[in-house]
Amino acid sequence: MKILVLGGTRFFGRLLIEKLLEQGHRVTIATRGKTLDPFGERVNRSVVDRFSEVSMSQAFRETQWDAIYDQICYTPNDAKIACDVFAGKTLHYIFTSSMAVYDAFKEEPFLESDFEPYAYPLVENSEREAFSYSEGKRAAEAYFFQKAAFPVTAVRFPIVMGEEDYTERLTFHIERIKEGKAFYIPNEASKMSYISAEEAGDFLAWLAESQLMGPVNACSDGVISIKDMIALIERIVGKEAVLAADKRAEQSPYGYAGTKMMSTEKAKKAGYAFRNLHDWLPSLIEKLK
Predict the structure, then answer these.
(1) H/E run at residue 192
(2) What is the C-alpha to C-alpha distance for residues 289 and 287, in angstroms, rounded to an integer?
(3) pTM above the 0.90 mark?
(4) Residue 151 pLDDT more than 90?
(5) How far apart are CA 39 and CA 274, in angstroms?
(6) What is the C-alpha separation between 30 and 71, in angstroms, rounded?
(7) Eight-class DSSP state of 87
């Protein structure tokens, strides 16, 4: 297959590209050309400003793709550019969305139908700064599913963990526990879905030859509370966490007020088997400690 990846030079985007290459696809990566990648002559490259319709139109005027991956779409304006530029030029558009589209906490797993992009109000021509991350993803999904002239899959990922995670959110906890530095957790009982970077890349690559369309949740089987995650880190690093009682203390980046987890029954029914969170998280902590 002939595949275009918008973004993808770091974190699970790299793992996606490696998997696509392993599967024998012809891959072109489109970036600003400012970040080196490890793929050498195995990929083609296009230097483009993803957020400029002029740049995108010029770069992809005479192209056709079996699938396009969009790792860097954050607003409906970004979605509009893609819809305008790639109309009639791709058989499948795979957009990396987020669990953040579910703008609530609840004890039951979210289904894809809990956020309905096909009926969500469309927003156009607003400045990027007008959108929070979660609202930008909701509005981008809405634009794709209501306006795109090609089939779209929106992959709703939770927090992605991995050795190359540039956000260093898991590392935050490991380092502070090792160093005896206090941090604040608003709700120790809150639970979250997670996915490893390896599985995120694998799932995206699997979609290239899948007929799975529309919104789809993707996360590892199993959930973990922040309390249990801290206990796991304590056991692996051999030190106890210092938890602050004062809300003004440095807050855990996994410190959510409530529980947010997702059902993956849609993806499983389509044939994908997710790994269990508890099978890979301990070894990741061990590597990062």
Answers:
(1) strand 191-192
(2) 6
(3) yes
(4) yes
(5) 27
(6) 10
(7) T
